[in-house]
Design goal:
The complex is a heterodimer of chains A (431) and B (221). Chain A folds into 4 domains: 2-118, Rossmann fold (3-Layer(aba) Sandwich); 133-250, Transcription Regulator spoIIAA, CATH 3.30.750.210; 258-370, Transcription Regulator spoIIAA; 375-430, OB fold (Dihydrolipoamide Acetyltransferase, E2P), CATH 2.40.50. Chain A is 34% helix and 20% strand. Chain A has 12 helices and 16 strands. The longest helix of chain A has 25 residues, at 346-370. Chain B has 221 residues and is α/β, with parallel strands linked by helices. Chain B folds into 2 domains: 10-96, Beta Barrel (Elongation Factor Tu (Ef-tu), domain 3); 103-219, 3-Layer(aba) Sandwich (Rossmann fold). Chain B is 15% helix and 33% strand. Chain B contains 4 helices and 13 strands. Chain B has helices spanning 77-82, 121-129, 174-179, 195-207, and strands spanning 10-12, 15-18, 23-29, 40-45, 51-55, 64-70, 89-96, 110-116, 135-141, 158-162, 170-171, 187-193, 215-219. In chain B, the strands form 3 sheets. A 6-stranded parallel sheet of chain B has the order 11-10-9-8-12-13, sandwiched between helices. Chain B has a 4-stranded antiparallel sheet with strand order 1-7-4-5. In chain B, a hairpin with a 4-residue loop joins strand 2 (15-18) and strand 3. Chain B is globular and about 50 Å long. The chains are: A alpha/beta (431), B alpha/beta (221). The interface between A and B is medium-sized, with 33 and 24 residues. Bound molecules: flavin-adenine dinucleotide (FAD) and iron/sulfur cluster (SF4).
Chain lengths: 431, 221
């Protein structure tokens, strides 16, 4: 064991909310820092992981391996461990934990699961993070994925979708809201397919939202409930209708498009086409016109032509996203596309990224500009980077700088007047 | 001793059928492997860390589990799989994916399967599973010998399109064949194989008035 590396890993994990335990049998996250210079330690790794994988049959456990690993072992370990990373990728570990469907609240930095431990909760949902925020919380509702997008290894590594019991989710959200949490996000790889793994036994996603909406109506506390990420193919008009009916269901939708080209969507095995996406956006605009729309996009996926990319540009012009997380395609080990030719050059990917960002900026700015002189509610989240202003988020998650240094407002939703707009942010004065 | 949890994923090869110089069927006993026709599995060789996806070729009710593999000469796994013999051990995970007969349309629609090369595999599984299915299978290959095990399909339901010889049912690509065909509006299409074929057929079907709701696709590469 490489002690200093293991300390670094430990510190990263503790920063995102994990608590160290000396008892292997009670851990939710177990990992190995391997050394493959000699065969013996590697043999031990195989012994260990086979034991841990047996434990996984009884409880939900996440495993990782890092250190010096031979490429051949790496391929093998991919199948045995949930996460595999090199020490140089250590800083990305929190994002990987999130990407791989391990929806620990801590992986998103500010976190809390507030409910007391419940014997029925899968161990994964029972991680005890450090309480880093007392107004923003993340509630895992589901783990794993059944979608098999060709660029993604999650379904092969994390396994099938498993929905957390709805009553626990509703109780946890109500409990958090009652304690004054203002921004609560339901987390999962495909939140809107919630319950489909237990058809007939568990409620559906819109029913879950409705139940939370009802619980929210009964509470005196104001809060905004978000969810991420939904999959377009499981997105129904009913979900949008429910959002429109309850104040606590935030008017912000994050709906990954990935590509605006139907051929690319087929090659990505996204199981929705542009028309399906368009119909959802039409429903959003009709039923919750005030909602902001965020998306995820991959540029430069294998065989993406300029024409295919232009279709994504056109989709941006049509849907006028407020924010897009644009990724330059890079093959992921374990995904089907990993072996397909990565035939769009890096320069081309970079160019497409920049061109798309420009289109995004134009529309985001136009929207932000339309808010100037309006009074809006802002959740104050802290001070800005230079410490000169307060910073917060609108209900639609637009970053807003507030001309005040009254730290007592942090964690509160306050009324403010928007006085100016930038590409991705607003400036406001307290009303 | 190494103690692999994955022991249960090892299967002993019960048969290998070489269909052409480059295509072969690998068979293992089914055991408790449950799947729906159209799904794929992930296959690897013992003591080798590489795995690949393969559509299941056998039917849901058969006692064996089969895959049809087309050797990619410069590829890694398929040339090695070609050397596999009865009694060898293979590692199998799955089933995975959602490709399959549209349940709601099973008895109300005609099912048109369009495959290139080894993309015929999931359709064989569907035909074996649902012998009563109202289907048509259009198989695009280069030469007649690539009409893999075509005796499995009744001649009035199977069309072999050969692009490099005149011995199939139609000389030319599947797109050329489809171009000339009329389809009832109650038709569900299923495309499987290389992405270029899938893109071309999608375009063609779109021009014939069939949108994405009428088409499912499984891309191999
Ligand atoms: C969901 C899914 C199901 C699949 N089902 C089958 C199946 O039933 N039968 C089958 O033979 N293959 C199938 N494949 C392809 C298979 O997984 C492998 O990619 C293929 O066997 C080549 O593996 P390899 O290790 O020999 O080649 P690699 O070393 O992985 O190199 C493969 C290269 O060849 C290309 N390639 C992949 N398949 C072919 C092909 N058939 N002809 C020409 N080039 C190809 C790839 O794009 C890649 O560039 C499937 C793929 C997917 C994603
Ligand atoms: S990208 Fe696709 S396969 Fe991966 S987690 Fe999301 S929906 Fe599932």
């Amino acid at each position: 064991m490489n002690i200093s590396d293991s300390e670094r890993v430990r510190s990263v994990l503790e920063r995102i909310g994990y608590v160290w335990t000396d008892n292997e049998e009670e851990a939710n996250l177990l990992g190995i820092l391997a050394c493959s210079v000699r065969q013996k330690p590697i043999d031990k790794v195989y012994n260990k992981i086979s034991q841990w994988n047996r434990w996984k049959n009884k409880r939900n456990l996440v495993t990782f391996i890092s250190g010096c690993i031979l490429p051949t072992d790496k391929e093998r370990f991919l199948k045995l461990f949930d996460l595999i990373f090199s020490m140089s990728e250590l800083s990305q570990l929190p994002a990987m934990i999130r990407d791989y469907g391990v929806v620990t609240p801590g992986a998103l930095d500010s976190s809390v699961t507030a409910m007391p431990a419940n014997e029925n909760i899968f161990q994964l949902w029972d991680v005890k993070p450090n309480y880093q925020s007392d107004f923003e919380a993340y509630v895992p509702i589901q783990n794993g994925c059944d979608k098999f997008c060709t660029y993604c290894a999650v379904p092969y590594t994390r396994g099938r979708e498993v929905s957390r019991p709805s009553q626990e989710i509703i109780d946890e959200v109500a409990h958090l809201a009652a304690r004054g949490y203002k921004s609560i996000t339901l987390l999962g790889q495909n939140v809107n397919s919630y319950g489909l793994d237990k058809k007939g036994e568990e409620i559906t996603f819109p029913e879950l939202l409705r139940a939370i909406g009802e619980a929210g109506n009964k509470l005196q506390q104001k809060f905004w409930l978000y969810f991420t990420s939904p999959h377009p193919s499981d997105m129904t008009r009913e979900v949008i209708e429910v959002i429109s009916q309850y104040d606590c269901l935030a008017k912000q939708i994050h709906l990954p498009l990935q590509s605006g080209d139907d051929r690319m969507l087929i090659k990505m095995k996204r199981s929705h086409d542009l028309q399906k996406y368009r119909e959802i956006v039409q429903d959003i605009r009709q039923l919750i016109p005030q909602a902001t729309l965020f998306t995820d996009i991959i540029v430069g996926f294998t065989s993406e032509t300029e024409e295919a990319f232009q279709n994504t540009v056109e989709a941006f012009q049509e849907f006028k996203f407020n924010m897009a997380y644009i990724a330059k395609y890079s093959p992921r080990p374990g995904a089907a596309s990993y072996r397909w030719e990565d035939d769009v050059t890096n320069d081309e990917k970079k160019g497409r990224y920049q061109r798309l960002t420009l289109v995004l900026k134009r529309h985001a700015y136009r929207y932000n500009q339309s808010l100037v002189n309006k009074e809006m509610e802002i959740l104050v989240t802290g001070k800005d980077r230079k410490g000169q202003y307060l910073q917060g988020l609108t209900e639609g998650k637009i970053i807003t700088r507030i001309e005040s240094l009254d730290e007592s407002l942090i964690g509160k939703i306050v009324p403010a007047k928007i006085i100016s707009a930038a590409d991705f942010s607003l400036t406001a004065q307290l009303a | 001793m190494m103690d692999f949890k994955i022991d249960t994923n090892f299967y002993t090869v019960s048969q290998v059928r070489h269909l052409t110089e480059h295509a072969f069927v690998v068979q293992v006993p089914r055991r408790n492997f449950k799947f729906t026709a159209g799904q794929h599995l992930v296959l690897g060789m013992k003591d080798d860390y590489h795995t690949r996806e393969y559509s299941i070729y056998s039917g849901e009710n058969e006692e064996v589990l089969e895959v049809l593999v087309k050797e990619v000469e410069e590829g890694y796994l398929s040339p090695r799989l070609k050397q596999v013999k009865e009694g060898d051990s293979l590692e199998i995970h799955g089933p995975f994916g959602h490709f399959g007969i549209e349940e709601k349309k099973r008895d109300t629609h005609k099912h048109v399967f369009i495959a290139s090369g080894s993309g015929i595999a999931p359709f064989r599984s569907m035909v074996k599973t649902y012998p009563e299915l109202d289907y048509q299978l259009i198989h695009g290959v280069r030469t007649i010998d690539e009409g893999y095990e075509r005796e499995n399909y009744s001649t009035d339901r199977y069309v072999l399109c050969t692009s490099r010889d005149d011995n199939g049912d139609f000389k030319g690509r599947v797109t050329a064949y489809l171009h000339e065909q009329e389809f009832d509006k109650n038709t569900q299409f299923y495309l499987c194989g290389n992405s270029q074929m899938i893109f071309d057929v999608l375009e063609l079907l779109k021009n014939k008035g069939f949108g994405r709701d009428s088409v499912s696709a499984e891309v191999y590469f």
